[in-house]
Design brief:
It contains 15 helices and 16 strands. It is of the alpha/beta class. Helix 1 packs parallel to helix 15, helix 4 packs across helix 5 and helix 7 runs parallel beside helix 12.
Amino acid sequence: MLEKRDYDAIVIGSGPNGLASAILMQQKGLSVLLIEGKETIGGGLRTKELTLPGFLHDVCSAVHPLAVSSPFFETLPLGNHGLEYIYPKIAAAHPFDDGTAAHLEKTIDLTANSLGNNEASYQKLITPLVNSWPDIKEDVLGPLHFPKHPLEMARFGLNALSSASYLSKSLKSPQARAFFAGMAAHSMQPLTKLTTAAAGLVLLLVGHTKGWPIPKGGSQQIANALASYFISIGGQIQTDFYISNLAQLPSAHAVLFDTTPAQLLEIAGHQLSSLYKWQLKHYRYGMGVFKIDWALSEPIPFTNKICRQAGTLHLGNSIDEIIANEQMTWEGGHPEKPFVLLSQPTIVDANRTPESKHTAWAYCHVPNGSDKDMTSHIENQVERFAPGFKDVILGRHTFNTCQMQSYNPNYIGGDINGGVLDIGQLFTRPALRLSPYKTSKKGLYICSASTPPGGGVHGMCGYHAAKHALRDVFKIK
């Protein structure tokens, strides 16, 4: 039961954005209650034994380039609260059918050297953006506003707002174009759509500036560290309490929802204006995911040895194959050779498994709400680049889109990005308003990935929503 007392602010949902909102407001001297419907905090940041005893798997997110690059998270002393990042030797690799592989490393030169004979074109595109990233990252990871460094931001924006298929034409080699397509496919849209280049660019920029780390012990450790810090500065957390109506809440001046529009409508719809409710009901969710976790007897036997050192793998071969299969998925199909994103954390974090054993997870995109079992499709894609992979599988656990949403209500139809991040919902998510974080009801805010800057473990949606609530309700800048 919730404690019967008044609070300055209440945050519903303990994903990275809910935690960020709660922390910022508590830092400003407010009394803040964070409420989580499940027994453990974390949202997409959870780690569990999903397959066999002793095998720890990241239930949702696993690799965290945006967490380590977050302008807000990097200000917090999370290392003092048990968080340790581990960096694979190779951040990400993209194998090809001929046995070669492109790969992302900290230096631009080493990455370019893996992209074929070109690869001055990659250096020409990425180098100026990497140099400006420290100045523009807070603007990129925020709502629409006048930037602090307008010229640098304009250069980034001209590239980022284009489609991945168009921007890839500036890269000369087939390997470079496929490598960029794999990065851009994190956008969960057809790569012919505007703004899909942004996902690829951001992932490359943080890779070259910070890397793509994994948290030692699993993604749950990020949530645990954020919660530990929040409690250390006086915050209060209530778990295992699912909110379905505002009447369940104690009194508070501000309530922030780390939920998608669907749950906001369920919980507070009766408090919202007709126009705002209409906008929320027309909010668009994107493709879902089908995810597999594996317990393995040994590391995945990738043909290319560089791939055996990579924390993340993009399995899709050529740019034409990736574009075609993502388009087919967007249109409701299930490709035989889907683009697969794979993580193999135990190549650097042996404590997640019994001695000498390993884990891996992977997912492919599927139509929103799909119940099709993609196990064989995904495992065939891994086997394509790692012959003998199926022989090292000890156990598996799968999530289809419905099971994903059942596990986390924010994943509507399996959409892990909180809604389509296209040109129509880039800055106006979840509704067309002067502030995307304000609802039509005074004191109610939305702080989830359904607000700018969108999906990813960075906490910046929550940070910006809390800043608006602090200014509007509490007159704190």
